[in-house]
Design a protein that fits this description.
With about 250 residues, the protein is α/β, with parallel strands linked by helices. The protein is built from twelve helices and eight strands. Helices cover about 45% and strands about 15% of the residues. Strands 1-2-3-4-5-6-7-8 form an eight-stranded parallel beta barrel, surrounded by five helices. The protein binds glyceraldehyde-3-phosphate.
């Protein structure tokens, strides 16, 4: 049985004071039994957020990390630094990182390895562009990105990874994939994982859907056989909406 995981990806939104107000508003409401709740905040907010949600059942994630633990990498943040703050999760390979910051499958893999080296759980994003979907390349793109991200991981590590399937054309556009389409791709990703490891390992790996998920459609996505949660951008920014997403995942 895979525990559903709702992760809010705040992207480049919210200051520290806004983060503290959010944490106060969702305290006691955004952690429900049987659902794992994660907030992935900007780096600057992580110390305040980890402190504010301590003991509430809400976990904290970062949105990126560098693949080295330290060094002359101006402006970067490492897994060692995140771990010391009490961060549990880290989003890796989000399409915005791939698109705007040139992250390749090789870099994504190095970051996944760095996350494990530092006791962080990676949320690995994969997904196709609109033109790739139109050219019927969705599955191939997801296969290549999945295989790239998992390269060199042991079965035990693989079992802990959370995969987020996010069709790029559905991110922030209001155009969500149908639940049936999303489930077809997530089920396919699971067959790729079974090919890399074995069926038992693939069966415990959680695969989220992401792309215009909101309180009104979250239950439908999570009702699908192979969708185990959601990675949510826009609808995770308001406390009421975030609580409703978590409630909808029960
Ligand atoms: O990481 C989250 C995704 O990019 C989805 O964003 P969205 O919910 O605003 O479409």
């Amino acid at each position: 049985m895979r525990t559903p995981i709702i992760a809010g990806n705040w992207k480049m939104f919210k200051t520290v004071s806004e983060t503290l107000a959010f944490a106060e508003a969702v305290k006691g409401k955004a952690a429900v039994e049987g659902v794992e709740t994660v907030i992935c905040a900007p780096f600057t907010n992580l110390p305040a957020l980890t402190e504010a949600v301590r003991g509430t059942g809400i976990k904290v994630g970062a949105q990126n990390l560098h693949f080295e633990d330290n060094g002359a990498f101006t402006g970067e943040i490492s897994g060692v630094m995140l771990k010391e703050l009490g961060v549990d999760y880290v989003i890796i390979g989000h399409s915005e990182r791939r698109q705007y910051f040139g992250e390749t499958d090789e870099i994504v893999n190095k970051k996944v390895v760095a996350a494990f080296r530092n006791g962080l759980t990676p949320i690995v994003c994969v997904g196709e562009k609109l033109e790739e979907r139109e050219a019927d390349q969705t599955k191939e793109v997801c296969k290549v990105q999945t295989e790239g991200a998992f390269k060199g991981l042991s079965k035990e590590e693989a079992a802990q990874v959370v995969v987020a399937y996010e069709p790029i054309w559905a991110i922030g556009t209001g155009k969500s994939s149908t639940s049936a389409d999303a489930n077809e791709v997530t089920a396919y990703i699971r067959t790729v994982l079974a090919g890399l490891y074995d069926q038992a390992t693939a069966d415990v790996i959680r695969i989220q859907y992401g792309g215009s998920v909101k309180p009104e459609n979250v239950t439908e996505y999570l009702g699908q056989s192979d969708i185990d949660g959601a990675l949510v951008g826009g609808a995770s920014l308001q406390p009421d909406s975030f609580v409703a997403l978590v409630e909808g995942a029960k």
